[in-house]
Amino acid sequence: MTIFSILLPLLVFFCFFRIKNQKKGSIATNWPLIGMLPAVLTNIHRIHDYTTEVLSQCSGTIQFKGPWFDNMDMVITCGPANIHHIFSKKFSNYPKGSEFRKIFDILGEGIFSSDFELWDLHGRTTLAVMSQAKFYSSLEGTLWETATDFEMQNVLRKVFFDSICQLLLDYNPGSLFTNLPCEKALSDALEPIFYGYVLPESVWKLQKWLKIGKEKKLLEAWQAVNDFINPLISPEREGNLNILTAFRIAYEESNIGVISGNLKHFLRDALFALLFAGRDTASTTLTWFSNVEESRKLVYLHAALCETLRLYPPVGLDLKTPLKPDTLPGGNYVHENTKVIITFYSTGRMEGVWGKDCLEFRPERWILKGVRVKYEPSVKFRVFNAGPRTCLGKEMAFI
Predict the structure, then answer these.
(1) For residue 73, which of 287, 340, 282 has the smallest C-alpha distance?
(2) Using CA atoms, how far apart are residues 201 and 187, in angstroms rounded to an integer?
(3) Which segments in the chain show pLDDT lower than 50?
(4) So what's the pLDDT on residue 4?
(5) Following DSSP, what letter does each residue of 45-110 receive, concatenated?
(6) CA–CA gap between residue 89 and residue 244 (Å, rounded)
(7) For residue 304, how far is the Cα from the chain centroid?
(8) Which residues of 33-70 are buried (b: 16+ CB within 10 A; e: fewer)?
(9) Which in 104, 217, 246, 263 has the greatest CB count within 10 A?
């Protein structure tokens, strides 16, 4: 045992050294005693991409060998034929099983981890609820109510304010997480500006002179904007891609006589206009971009969502264990209770499944004749599961 405890670390170190010098994507070597474990540990930080590279060289399936002293031997696959075999044709032979429930014990006996009668009970009950005519109308109402509760437009304003500051000034004020006076001031300024349209000029000018009413609010907002922008207008903040540099050069080279004030005032006004426009226009529009019935007609949006899910499935893999020995369509023999890992992340990136442009983000692949979303079988697009366990909430997820 002492000799083994000395030799094993040396063997692992040797394997790591060899793997570091291997060509990227090369098939994992099955080392004596420790199997293919070193390759997994070496690529653990990029395990999904590494698995995809290996599977692409093994026709979509590999027999993984773990250390001899542990029960880690498994079959890893991503081929559509195997997915159809496991999830549909031989569905009853591949339950979630005790191994899955052991790993995901936090799920308890819910629909995701249950099998047979209990799973059927969960499925029938869930489907009955979601099949009611009022379910999706209630969903729409709930989404609107939730959006109203957390003031969706206010959140979007802060997102765009931070983004435009980062883009123009290379500075993130973090208004999304704090109550920034300047960001709030931009909202406070809108109402007094509107009143300037409807009140007589003499009235709002008097309010401004006396610093009362809506004009007082506008002056306070303007001061908050000044306090925010002025420290950012300095030579130290200029750079090759900084908006300050571009406007300073434009000011110095300009012969326009209507420019009043000094350079600092010019830069302040330029930045204020861009912050105001970049923050409010986009956020106001997006607030209304959430009607359920209208969204069903947005073919390209639906295609873009599908393409995102193809490349980045929310659940990257699944685990199955056969009740009885089986042979997969590709010829791989699976022993009873052998772990079978199905990697959907890899399925979405297989050239044999999606073509030579499989790694490109191309929503057009989902659009048929330019007018409707193309159907892809679940064995290719496995995001919403396949076979009897097909996700009941697919429509709700897209909404």
Answers:
(1) 340
(2) 22
(3) 1, 3-7
(4) 44
(5) GGHHHHHHHHHHTTTTEEEE---TTSS--EEEE--HHHHHIIIIITGGG---HHHHHHHTGGGTTS
(6) 64
(7) 12
(8) ebbbbbbbebbeeeebebbbbbbbebebbbbbbbbeee
(9) 217
| Torsion over CA: 46, 49, 54, 60 (sign) | positive
Residue entry with tokens 């005519």: 133
Name 55's Cβ contacts closer than 8 Å, sequence gap at least 6: 61, 62, 76, 77, 78, 343, 346, 350
Chain Cα centroid distance, residue 309: 9
Question: What's the Rg (C-alpha) of the chain?
Answer: 30
Q: Look at residue 3 in the predicted model and tell me its pLDDT.
A: 47
What number of residues does the chain have?
Answer: 399
Report the pLDDT value the prediction gives residue 21, as an integer from 0 to 100: 53
- For residue 150, which amino acid is it? F
Task: Give residue for tokens 């979630």.
Answer: 96
257, burial (CB in 10 Å: exposed 0-12, middle 13-18, buried 19+): exposed
CA-to-CA distance for 396 and 130, rounded, in angstroms?
A: 9
Name beta bridge partners: 318. 342
pLDDT the model gives residue 363: 95
pTM across the whole model: 0.69
pLDDT score, position 282: 67
Q: At what angle do helices 263-287 and 152-169 cross, to 10 degrees?
A: 140
Residue type, 363: P
Domains in the chain: boundaries: 31-104+297-359+367-398, 106-291
Q: Which helix (H) or strand (E) holds 223?
A: helix 213-229
Return the half-sphere exposure (C-beta side, CA atoms, 13 A cut-off) of residue 152: 15
Q: Which residue has the tokens 């090759």?
A: 240
Q: Give the C-alpha separation, 329 to 166, whole Å.
A: 53
What's domain 106-291's architecture? Orthogonal Bundle (1.10)
Tokens linked to 270: 């330029």
| CA–CA separation, 317 and 48 (whole Å) | 9
73, exposed or middle or buried, with CB in 10 Å at 0-12, 13-18, 19+? middle
* pLDDT at residue 250, rounded to an integer: 80
SS3 of residue 172 by DSSP? coil
